[in-house]
Amino acid sequence: MRTMLFLLLALALVPAHAGATLDRVKRTGVVINVLLDSYPPFEFLGPDNQLAGFDIDVARAFAAKIGAKLQLQTPSWETIVGGHWQGRWDICICSMTRTAERERSLSFPVQYYASPAVITVNKNEQHIKSAADLSGKRVGVGNGSTYENYLNRALVLDGQAVVSYPFHDVVAIPGDETINFRNLALGPGVRLDAIVSSLATATASAAALPALKVLSPTLYAERSSVATEKGDPDWDALVARTFQELKADGSLAKISQKWLNMDAIVYGP
Protein backbone atom coordinates (compact mmCIF):
# COMPACT_ATOMS: atom_id res chain seq x y z
CA MET A 1 0.00 0.00 0.00
CA ARG A 2 2.82 2.35 0.88
CA THR A 3 4.60 1.60 -2.41
CA MET A 4 1.47 2.32 -4.41
CA LEU A 5 0.99 5.59 -2.53
CA PHE A 6 4.50 6.70 -3.46
CA LEU A 7 3.88 5.69 -7.06
CA LEU A 8 0.69 7.70 -7.25
CA LEU A 9 2.47 10.74 -5.83
CA ALA A 10 5.34 10.37 -8.29
CA LEU A 11 2.92 10.17 -11.21
CA ALA A 12 0.58 12.89 -10.06
CA LEU A 13 1.77 15.39 -12.65
CA VAL A 14 1.31 13.16 -15.72
CA PRO A 15 -1.82 13.20 -17.88
CA ALA A 16 -4.77 11.02 -16.87
CA HIS A 17 -4.65 9.20 -20.21
CA ALA A 18 -0.95 8.39 -20.50
CA GLY A 19 0.71 6.07 -23.00
CA ALA A 20 0.87 2.30 -22.80
CA THR A 21 4.06 2.01 -20.75
CA LEU A 22 3.12 4.60 -18.15
CA ASP A 23 -0.39 3.18 -17.84
CA ARG A 24 1.08 -0.29 -17.28
CA VAL A 25 3.47 0.89 -14.57
CA LYS A 26 0.70 2.86 -12.85
CA ARG A 27 -1.63 -0.14 -12.95
CA THR A 28 0.84 -2.79 -11.75
CA GLY A 29 3.13 -0.78 -9.48
CA VAL A 30 6.03 -2.65 -11.14
CA VAL A 31 8.73 -1.42 -13.52
CA ILE A 32 10.45 -4.07 -15.64
CA ASN A 33 14.04 -3.30 -16.56
CA VAL A 34 15.75 -5.27 -19.30
CA LEU A 35 19.53 -5.72 -19.37
CA LEU A 36 22.39 -8.21 -19.73
CA ASP A 37 23.89 -10.62 -17.21
CA SER A 38 27.46 -10.61 -18.52
CA TYR A 39 28.71 -7.01 -18.69
CA PRO A 40 30.73 -6.33 -15.51
CA PRO A 41 30.91 -4.02 -13.65
CA PHE A 42 27.64 -2.67 -15.07
CA GLU A 43 25.50 -5.81 -14.95
CA PHE A 44 26.51 -9.38 -14.18
CA LEU A 45 25.68 -12.45 -12.14
CA GLY A 46 27.44 -12.34 -8.78
CA PRO A 47 28.81 -15.29 -6.76
CA ASP A 48 25.33 -15.77 -5.28
CA ASN A 49 23.89 -16.10 -8.81
CA GLN A 50 22.05 -12.80 -8.36
CA LEU A 51 22.28 -9.84 -10.73
CA ALA A 52 24.58 -7.09 -9.50
CA GLY A 53 26.42 -4.05 -10.82
CA PHE A 54 26.18 -0.36 -11.61
CA ASP A 55 23.06 -0.60 -13.78
CA ILE A 56 21.30 -2.84 -11.26
CA ASP A 57 21.78 -0.25 -8.52
CA VAL A 58 20.71 2.58 -10.83
CA ALA A 59 17.57 0.64 -11.78
CA ARG A 60 16.79 0.06 -8.11
CA ALA A 61 17.23 3.76 -7.36
CA PHE A 62 14.96 4.67 -10.26
CA ALA A 63 12.23 2.25 -9.17
CA ALA A 64 12.44 3.44 -5.58
CA LYS A 65 12.23 7.08 -6.65
CA ILE A 66 8.94 6.51 -8.47
CA GLY A 67 7.66 4.14 -5.79
CA ALA A 68 7.52 1.02 -7.97
CA LYS A 69 8.80 -2.50 -7.45
CA LEU A 70 11.65 -3.53 -9.74
CA GLN A 71 11.78 -6.62 -11.91
CA LEU A 72 14.81 -7.56 -14.03
CA GLN A 73 14.83 -9.58 -17.22
CA THR A 74 17.81 -10.60 -19.37
CA PRO A 75 17.07 -11.49 -22.99
CA SER A 76 19.80 -11.24 -25.63
CA TRP A 77 21.32 -7.88 -26.50
CA GLU A 78 20.13 -8.23 -30.09
CA THR A 79 16.55 -8.61 -28.84
CA ILE A 80 16.85 -5.52 -26.64
CA VAL A 81 18.33 -3.19 -29.24
CA GLY A 82 16.00 -4.49 -31.96
CA GLY A 83 13.05 -2.70 -30.35
CA HIS A 84 9.46 -3.82 -30.86
CA TRP A 85 9.26 -4.80 -27.20
CA GLN A 86 5.46 -5.11 -27.45
CA GLY A 87 4.95 -4.29 -23.79
CA ARG A 88 7.27 -6.97 -22.43
CA TRP A 89 9.58 -4.45 -20.75
CA ASP A 90 9.25 -0.86 -19.55
CA ILE A 91 12.79 0.44 -19.62
CA CYS A 92 16.39 -0.45 -20.41
CA ILE A 93 18.83 0.91 -17.86
CA CYS A 94 21.54 -1.17 -19.48
CA SER A 95 24.47 1.00 -20.66
CA MET A 96 23.11 1.49 -24.16
CA THR A 97 24.69 4.04 -26.48
CA ARG A 98 22.26 6.05 -28.58
CA THR A 99 22.88 5.64 -32.30
CA ALA A 100 20.92 6.63 -35.38
CA GLU A 101 20.17 2.98 -36.13
CA ARG A 102 18.84 2.29 -32.63
CA GLU A 103 16.75 5.46 -32.65
CA ARG A 104 14.64 3.93 -35.41
CA SER A 105 13.27 1.42 -32.89
CA LEU A 106 13.81 2.93 -29.44
CA SER A 107 13.52 6.21 -27.56
CA PHE A 108 16.39 7.62 -25.50
CA PRO A 109 14.91 10.04 -22.95
CA VAL A 110 18.08 10.69 -20.96
CA GLN A 111 21.84 10.14 -20.87
CA TYR A 112 23.14 9.11 -17.47
CA TYR A 113 26.87 8.34 -17.59
CA ALA A 114 29.90 8.64 -19.85
CA SER A 115 32.45 5.92 -20.45
CA PRO A 116 35.69 6.17 -22.44
CA ALA A 117 36.57 3.40 -24.90
CA VAL A 118 39.95 1.74 -24.47
CA ILE A 119 42.14 -1.06 -25.82
CA THR A 120 43.05 -4.03 -23.67
CA VAL A 121 45.89 -6.40 -24.59
CA ASN A 122 47.68 -9.32 -23.04
CA LYS A 123 50.53 -8.09 -20.84
CA ASN A 124 52.98 -10.01 -23.04
CA GLU A 125 51.82 -8.23 -26.19
CA GLN A 126 54.80 -6.44 -27.76
CA HIS A 127 53.37 -4.88 -30.91
CA ILE A 128 50.08 -3.18 -30.03
CA LYS A 129 50.74 0.17 -28.36
CA SER A 130 47.91 2.29 -29.78
CA ALA A 131 44.85 2.20 -32.04
CA ALA A 132 47.07 2.46 -35.14
CA ASP A 133 48.55 -0.93 -34.27
CA LEU A 134 45.15 -2.64 -34.52
CA SER A 135 45.42 -2.81 -38.32
CA GLY A 136 45.02 -6.39 -39.50
CA LYS A 137 44.47 -7.66 -35.94
CA ARG A 138 41.69 -9.78 -34.45
CA VAL A 139 39.95 -7.56 -31.94
CA GLY A 140 37.18 -8.71 -29.61
CA VAL A 141 34.08 -6.57 -29.02
CA GLY A 142 30.78 -7.13 -27.27
CA ASN A 143 27.92 -8.60 -29.28
CA GLY A 144 25.97 -5.81 -30.98
CA SER A 145 28.16 -3.12 -29.41
CA THR A 146 29.14 0.24 -30.84
CA TYR A 147 32.76 -0.84 -30.52
CA GLU A 148 32.24 -3.08 -33.54
CA ASN A 149 31.01 -0.05 -35.51
CA TYR A 150 34.11 1.81 -34.41
CA LEU A 151 36.45 -0.91 -35.67
CA ASN A 152 34.48 -0.99 -38.92
CA ARG A 153 35.08 2.79 -39.21
CA ALA A 154 31.35 3.52 -39.14
CA LEU A 155 30.57 4.83 -35.65
CA VAL A 156 28.07 7.68 -35.26
CA LEU A 157 27.49 9.09 -31.76
CA ASP A 158 24.85 11.75 -31.05
CA GLY A 159 24.56 12.41 -34.77
CA GLN A 160 28.29 12.95 -35.23
CA ALA A 161 30.58 10.54 -37.06
CA VAL A 162 33.78 9.53 -35.32
CA VAL A 163 36.40 10.79 -37.76
CA SER A 164 39.60 9.44 -36.22
CA TYR A 165 40.26 5.90 -37.40
CA PRO A 166 44.04 5.40 -37.37
CA PHE A 167 43.72 1.73 -38.37
CA HIS A 168 42.51 -0.36 -41.30
CA ASP A 169 41.36 -3.91 -42.03
CA VAL A 170 40.66 -4.79 -38.43
CA VAL A 171 38.91 -8.13 -37.93
CA ALA A 172 36.24 -7.34 -35.34
CA ILE A 173 35.16 -10.47 -33.46
CA PRO A 174 31.86 -10.02 -31.57
CA GLY A 175 31.21 -12.16 -28.53
CA ASP A 176 30.36 -12.28 -24.86
CA GLU A 177 32.72 -9.77 -23.25
CA THR A 178 33.49 -11.95 -20.25
CA ILE A 179 34.57 -14.76 -22.57
CA ASN A 180 36.50 -12.31 -24.77
CA PHE A 181 38.66 -11.18 -21.85
CA ARG A 182 39.30 -14.76 -20.77
CA ASN A 183 40.37 -15.63 -24.31
CA LEU A 184 42.73 -12.66 -24.44
CA ALA A 185 44.28 -13.78 -21.14
CA LEU A 186 45.39 -17.02 -22.83
CA GLY A 187 48.18 -15.12 -24.58
CA PRO A 188 48.88 -12.62 -27.37
CA GLY A 189 47.20 -13.78 -30.56
CA VAL A 190 46.10 -17.16 -29.19
CA ARG A 191 42.46 -16.34 -29.82
CA LEU A 192 42.45 -12.55 -29.86
CA ASP A 193 45.05 -9.84 -30.31
CA ALA A 194 43.19 -7.14 -28.38
CA ILE A 195 39.79 -6.01 -27.11
CA VAL A 196 38.02 -2.67 -27.43
CA SER A 197 35.57 -2.00 -24.60
CA SER A 198 34.58 0.56 -22.00
CA LEU A 199 37.26 1.68 -19.55
CA ALA A 200 35.25 0.42 -16.57
CA THR A 201 34.80 -3.04 -18.09
CA ALA A 202 38.46 -3.23 -19.08
CA THR A 203 39.65 -2.11 -15.65
CA ALA A 204 37.46 -4.65 -13.86
CA SER A 205 38.59 -7.43 -16.21
CA ALA A 206 42.27 -6.57 -15.81
CA ALA A 207 41.86 -6.61 -12.03
CA ALA A 208 40.36 -10.09 -12.23
CA LEU A 209 42.79 -11.36 -14.88
CA PRO A 210 46.38 -10.22 -14.15
CA ALA A 211 47.47 -11.38 -17.63
CA LEU A 212 45.76 -8.32 -19.11
CA LYS A 213 46.70 -4.66 -19.31
CA VAL A 214 44.70 -1.60 -20.37
CA LEU A 215 46.35 0.79 -22.79
CA SER A 216 46.14 4.56 -22.62
CA PRO A 217 45.10 7.08 -23.80
CA THR A 218 41.40 6.44 -24.36
CA LEU A 219 40.02 6.15 -27.90
CA TYR A 220 36.84 8.25 -27.62
CA ALA A 221 34.02 8.79 -25.12
CA GLU A 222 30.52 7.35 -25.26
CA ARG A 223 27.53 8.57 -23.32
CA SER A 224 25.17 5.81 -22.25
CA SER A 225 21.45 6.45 -22.34
CA VAL A 226 18.33 4.99 -20.84
CA ALA A 227 16.22 3.37 -23.56
CA THR A 228 12.45 2.93 -23.75
CA GLU A 229 9.93 1.62 -26.21
CA LYS A 230 8.81 4.24 -28.72
CA GLY A 231 5.39 5.82 -28.40
CA ASP A 232 5.01 7.02 -24.81
CA PRO A 233 6.30 10.60 -24.39
CA ASP A 234 4.74 10.87 -20.90
CA TRP A 235 6.73 7.88 -19.68
CA ASP A 236 9.86 9.30 -21.30
CA ALA A 237 9.26 12.63 -19.54
CA LEU A 238 8.91 10.87 -16.18
CA VAL A 239 12.10 8.89 -16.81
CA ALA A 240 14.06 12.04 -17.68
CA ARG A 241 12.70 13.94 -14.68
CA THR A 242 13.45 11.08 -12.30
CA PHE A 243 17.04 10.76 -13.50
CA GLN A 244 17.50 14.49 -13.08
CA GLU A 245 16.36 14.10 -9.46
CA LEU A 246 18.69 11.13 -8.92
CA LYS A 247 21.58 13.20 -10.16
CA ALA A 248 20.60 16.23 -8.10
CA ASP A 249 20.32 14.28 -4.83
CA GLY A 250 23.68 12.57 -5.36
CA SER A 251 22.30 9.04 -5.78
CA LEU A 252 23.87 8.46 -9.20
CA ALA A 253 27.26 9.81 -8.16
CA LYS A 254 27.29 7.50 -5.14
CA ILE A 255 26.50 4.46 -7.29
CA SER A 256 29.16 5.52 -9.82
CA GLN A 257 31.83 5.79 -7.13
CA LYS A 258 30.84 2.38 -5.75
CA TRP A 259 31.15 0.50 -9.05
CA LEU A 260 33.38 2.65 -11.29
CA ASN A 261 35.62 4.37 -8.72
CA MET A 262 34.81 7.73 -10.28
CA ASP A 263 31.94 10.13 -10.85
CA ALA A 264 31.03 9.26 -14.44
CA ILE A 265 27.56 10.78 -14.23
CA VAL A 266 26.23 13.08 -16.92
CA TYR A 267 22.71 14.30 -17.55
CA GLY A 268 21.15 15.37 -20.80
CA PRO A 269 18.55 14.48 -23.42
Total separate domains: 2
Low-pLDDT runs: 1-6, 8-17
Tell me what portion of residues adopts beta-strand conformation: 25-35%
Mean pLDDT: 91
**CATH hierarchy class name of the largest domain:** Alpha Beta
Secondary-structure element series:
HHEEEEHEHEHEEHEEEHEHEEHHE
Q: At the fourth CATH level, what is the homologous superfamily of the largest domain?
A: Periplasmic binding protein-like II
Termini separation = 33 Å
CATH topology of the largest domain, anyone?
A: D-Maltodextrin-Binding Protein, domain 2
What is the count of helical runs?
A: 10
Give the CA-based shape.
Answer: globular
What is the C-alpha radius of gyration, as a whole number of Å? 19 Å
CATH structural architecture of the largest domain: 3-Layer(aba) Sandwich
The largest pleated sheet is described as: 8 strands, mixed
How many beta-strand segments?
A: 15
Which structural class matches the secondary elements?
alpha+beta
